[in-house]
Specification:
The chain is α/β, with parallel strands linked by helices. The protein has one domain: Dihydrofolate Reductase, subunit A (3-Layer(aba) Sandwich). It is built from 7 helices and 10 strands. Strands 1-9-10-8-2-7-3-4-5-6 form a 10-stranded mixed sheet, with helices on both faces. Helix 4 links the parallel strand 3 and strand 4. The chain is globular and about 55 Å long. The two termini are 34 Å apart. NADP nicotinamide-adenine-dinucleotide phosphate (NAP) binds next to strand 2, strand 3, helix 4, strand 7 and helix 6. NADP nicotinamide-adenine-dinucleotide phosphate binds next to strand 2, strand 3, helix 4, strand 7 and helix 6.
Length: 275
């Protein structure tokens, strides 16, 4: 496991990497600063094309909230700071409408320096109220991905897609957002939303942050629609492990961006099919 030391100078370097003004490899850094560059560099880099990274924070028993819906805060202080750093490195943060309705998140960057990303909610039926915190004007772009005709306030952008049996195709979501200039994305949850992108083979990285608490019941992080029956068939991503102080991050590489970037989205493979 690699311990992270996120000193101001290494965070400045990571932001410079994001802006295309520096590389993530050169320079003199301590081993723990270098580990920070290794963790955030792949999300910050733009030279390999846009990145799609998902992050979920869960307990030792794999829960992301309590049964009553309390999800604030499963992650410890360093895990939360990590989430804000990821937000600062992407163009947009994507959440499902259930998270928007349960948690009332702002999706802003408050625990580190950096810009606020666009706030994107997948809301196929138009359930999100217009006075939701993340739809308030005066900050980053606000985007609703939907199949509904519900009109939205001026300034709220709507990506309208066709639903099939209530589902929006994650490939079309990603393509639509990229056409809107939102290239690199953080899929922040919840589990249903992340799983949709994971099963469509669209995640470059999946980060699972584990905090040392046991909740006992409640929603689980990831549950795929097509689980494997044999462990031999399980998805075993190339994984690096980082100690953040309060939490541990499993940083999983799911594809080679450079290789995938050469293919149109609709030709990218499903990760796993049911047998
Ligand atoms: N610990 C963490 O890191 C973390 C992060 C985020 C959320 N959470 C917790 O997770 C829970 C919510 O997660 P969740 O998995 O139940 O729900 P979710 O992923 O937040 O939202 C799922 C909903 O979003 C819409 N949606 C997402 N992708 C879609 C697609 N491809 N096509 C059509 N609709 C799509 C659907 O809305 P409709 O229902 O309208 O069809 C779906 O039911 C909450 O308790 C929250 O507190 C924890």
């Amino acid at each position: 496991m690699h311990a992270i030391d996120l000193t101001p100078r290494v965070w400045d370097r990571i932001l410079a990497v994001r802006d295309g003004k520096a590389c993530a490899c050169c320079g003199r850094f301590t081993p723990a600063e270098r580990a920070a560059l290794d963790l955030y560099g792949p999300v910050a880099r733009r030279d390999l094309g846009p990145v799609t990274v998902a992050q979920i924070g869960q307990s030792l028993d794999g829960r992301v909230a309590t049964s009553s819906g309390d999800a604030r805060d499963v992650s410890g202080p360093e895990g939360l700071a990590h989430l804000h750093r990821l937000r600062a490195l992407v163009d947009g943060v994507v959440i499902g409408v259930r998270t928007a309705l349960h948690d009332h998140p702002r999706l802003t960057v408050r625990l580190c320096s950096g810009h606020d990303p666009a706030r994107i909610v997948i809301d196929p039926q138009g359930r999100l109220p217009d006075d939701a915190l993340l739809l308030r004007p005066g900050g980053a772009r606000r985007v609703i991905v939907t199949a509904s005709d519900r009109p939205r306030a001026p300034g709220v952008e709507v990506l309208r897609l066709r639903a099939v049996e209530g589902r929006l195709d994650p490939v079309q979501i990603l393509e639509g957002l990229r056409e809107m200039g939102l290239g690199s994305l953080l899929i922040e949850g919840g589990g249903l939303t992340i799983t949709g992108f994971l099963e469509a083979g669209l995640l470059d990285r999946l980060q699972v942050s584990i905090a040392p608490l046991i909740i006992g019941a409640g929603p689980q992080g990831l549950t795929t629609r097509n689980p494997v029956e044999k462990l031999a068939d399980a998805l075993r991503p190339d994984t690096r492990v980082y100690g953040l102080g309060s939490d541990i991050v499993f940083d999983c590489g799911l594809g080679t961006r450079a290789e995938l970037a050469r293919r149109p989205l609709h030709e990218r493979p499903m990760i796993r099919h049911a047998h």
